[in-house]
Specification:
By secondary structure, this protein is α+β, with helices and mostly antiparallel strands. It has 22 helices and 22 strands.
Length: 676
């Protein structure tokens, strides 16, 4: 019986004596194993902030936040030392007394529990070794622990330990644990709270205070006893901490609770840009971070997300969906909507809603859904025309016509929604009333390739077929693309790239990415302003009337696809540009209420009305070489007495129509009044 217990004890003790000798003559491969400690870069939690620096989300695979040792209270470090390794500051990686004490207990109980590991040994086991419970693995652990003590100071080893250990409930390290169990940073922990955390590494799941508060409290009192025995605390501190009532509360995690569609788009953008093979302005090679950096890099990501604009957008969209489909929660498929809004000066995306409920579906209808834009495409057609000799007062025949399409051996004949035709019609009137035949005729006259080229200049990247029906929005585009394209009109002809991510800093506070404002000239400032003026007519007197906001200059365009399947409105004030989409995911018709002016424009108006006070009121800027004139409905300048029956339009200087005396003008009643 004696041999049964003595032999394992003797063997184990002998092996550890041998291990002690190896500490001074380590095998060659030890150096490579210890590099993990000398260049310690653990996976850290990435933090995402809104425009005001408030935490918007956390991204991680291991929830871990870095600690700064000199900011931690001394009793927090002492609690772990007293519990896990009271001889930490004395031994050289292995504590011989603890080893022999452990083997004695193993011999006495007839088990192989292998206690007695120092903090340094625990680190080695966690980071570079397997969890096999064998004497040979224990020797390897001891050798590496001794060598590690030669490379790093005690403070460095303790710092890595407090960052690395698993503390239960998905928390790695004491900082994440403090946030998880006490809703505070580690530097703000009391002695009683610190003692509770120090007791968790032995059995993180079993001692989780959220689930087993009595067991956690019992373990905490053991830690306090050990601290008192090692003279880390006084009897009074021990008694006060023993009696302190602990309140367990997890720090709120806002991730996926506010701005979920916005966050998802931030993720997509960063996964692409953090792995690009190029140098950023600071000379840092971004590809070294890679896609894993988003979840492991401890990055600090600053976004343009604005909670005020987000809530206004969410409320407006929810109200619009409820009015169109009161029973949408019981319909399958259910009516969906999207809203994309950005600042016209900075390109900062103020709000992005990709659907009515992110938890119902993560598909982002603002950035991922490609749908027929319908009449929303017409301003691209008309801006092309303005660049090729047309003016806002150019008369175009609104009458039936058809053309033969050789590619498909078909006859194409565009139709107006009303089924009626008005004869010669001003370009501005055709846009305001969204007359299909005029848009199609203009596109054919200037050339479909030129229209598509203009769309590309305005940032449309989706596939656009070179067919006449492209003039009526037959091509499928995203809401974000159309918003970007429309930014050319109020911005003097220069489109601006939407920006959600503004800057990214690494775990060391070094800026690694700065998403600068990016613009590109897509048309002349004069063409852009004339289009803006025409789009104001759409809102004041045309199909976009429901987007009017009292006291605020508004320009925009409605869009409705064939079969009333997609409803759009993209509009802008001098400071803010917003697009709204409404429709079923499967393309089901929405019925008579599904026109862009009825379904999307009211949502736009509700949102813009709610955030109007966030900007100072001003008018659209007028570029040089723009003149104004009042024209009759057939496009001639009018004298004093005719002004009330005419239309005041913007022209590039030198292109305005010539004055015609009233006796030679057609009577105003011949054409429909735009004020209807």
């Amino acid at each position: 019986m004696l041999n049964r217990f003595f032999i394992p004890w003797f063997i184990g003790a002998s092996l550890f004596i041998a291990a002690g000798k190896l500490c001074f003559a380590a095998p060659p491969d030890v150096g490579a194993a210890l590099d993990k400690f000398t260049d310690y870069r653990p996976p850290l939690t990435t933090t995402v902030y809104d425009k005001d620096g408030r935490v918007l989300a956390y991204f991680f695979r291991q929830n871990r936040f870095p600690i700064v040792m000199d900011q931690l209270p001394s009793y927090l470090k002492q609690a772990f030392i007293a519990t896990e390794d009271s001889a930490f500051y004395i031994h050289d990686g292995v504590d011989p007394k603890a080893v022999f004490r452990s083997f004695s207990n193993n011999v006495r109980t007839g088990t192989r529990q292998q206690g007695g590991s120092t903090i340094t040994q625990q680190l080695v086991k966690t980071m570079v070794l397997s969890s096999d419970k064998t004497y040979f693995r224990k020797i390897e652990e001891a050798v590496l622990a001794c060598q590690l003590e030669k490379r790093l100071s005690k403070e460095q080893i303790l710092s890595i330990y407090l960052n690395e250990i698993y503390m239960g409930a998905g928390a790695y390290g004491v900082e994440a644990a403090a946030r998880t169990y006490f809703n505070k940073p580690a530097h703000a922990l009391s002695l009683a709270e610190a003692a509770l955390l120090a007791g968790l590494p032995k059995a993180p799941s079993r001692l989780n205070p959220h689930q087993a508060p009595d067991k956690a409290k019992e373990r905490q009192r053991y830690v306090l006893d050990r601290m008192l025995a090692d003279h880390f605390i006084t009897t009074q501190q021990h008694r006060q901490a023993w009696e302190e009532h602990l309140i367990y509360m997890r720090m709120p995690d806002p991730t996926w609770k506010t701005g979920s569609y916005y966050l998802a788009e931030v993720q997509r953008w960063l996964r692409t840009h953090l792995s690009r093979e190029h140098l950023n302005p600071q000379g840092i090679f971004l590809s070294q971070y890679g896609k894993d950096a988003l979840y492991e890099g401890g990055l600090h990501i600053y976004t343009a997300f604005d909670p005020v604009f987000h809530q206004a957008a969410r409320d407006a969209l929810a109200q619009g969906l409820t009015q169109l489909a009161p029973d949408r929660d019981r319909n399958r498929p259910r009516l969906q909507g999207a809203l994309f809004s950005m600042d016209l000066h900075s390109g900062e995306v103020k709000a992005l809603i990709g659907g009515d409920d992110y938890h119902y579906t993560q598909f982002n209808r603002a950035t991922q859904a490609r749908r027929q834009s319908g009449s929303l495409f017409k301003p691209i057609v008309f801006s092309t025309a303005l660049a090729h000799g047309y003016t806002a007062a150019s008369p175009v025949m609104d009458a039936p016509f058809s053309i033969y399409l050789s590619a498909t051996d078909e006859i194409w004949a565009p139709q107006n929604v009303s089924g009626e035709f008005t004869g010669p019609t001003l370009l501005c009137t055709a846009l305001a009333r969204s007359i299909n035949v005029v848009a199609a005729r203009v596109a054919l006259q200037v050339g479909i390739p030129k229209v598509i080229a203009q769309a590309r200049q305005m940032g449309i990247t989706s596939y656009l077929p070179q067919v006449p029906s492209i003039s009526l929005g037959a091509g499928e585009t995203t809401l974000m693309e159309m918003v970007r394209a429309y930014s050319a009109f109020p911005r003097g002809g220069a489109i601006i790239q939407p920006r959600m991510v503004l800057s990214v800093y690494d775990r060391d506070g070094q800026r690694i990415l700065h998403n600068r404002v990016q613009t590109k000239q897509a048309m002349s400032p004069q063409t852009a302003y004339i289009m803006t003026d025409m789009l104001k007519q759409c809102v004041e007197r045309g199909t976009g009337r429901r987007a009017r906001i009292k006291g605020l200059p508004v320009a925009g365009k409605t869009g409705t696809s064939n079969g009333i399947r997609d409803a759009w409105f993209v509009g802008f004030t001098p400071n803010l540009l917003t697009g709204v989409f409404m429709g079923f995911d499967d393309g089901s018709p929405m019925g008579e209420q599904g026109f862009g002016g009825r379904a999307a424009a009211p949502v736009w108006a509700a949102y813009h009305g709610a955030v109007a006070d966030r900007y100072k009121s001003k008018e659209f800027e007028i570029p040089e070489n723009i003149v104004f004139g009042t024209v009759s409905h057939e496009g001639t300048f009018m004298g004093p007495g005719w002004r009330e029956n005419g239309i005041t339009l913007a022209f590039e200087k030198g292109t305005e129509p010539k004055y015609v005396p009233p006796s030679h003008a057609w009577p105003p009643g011949l054409y429909p009044d735009l004020s209807d």
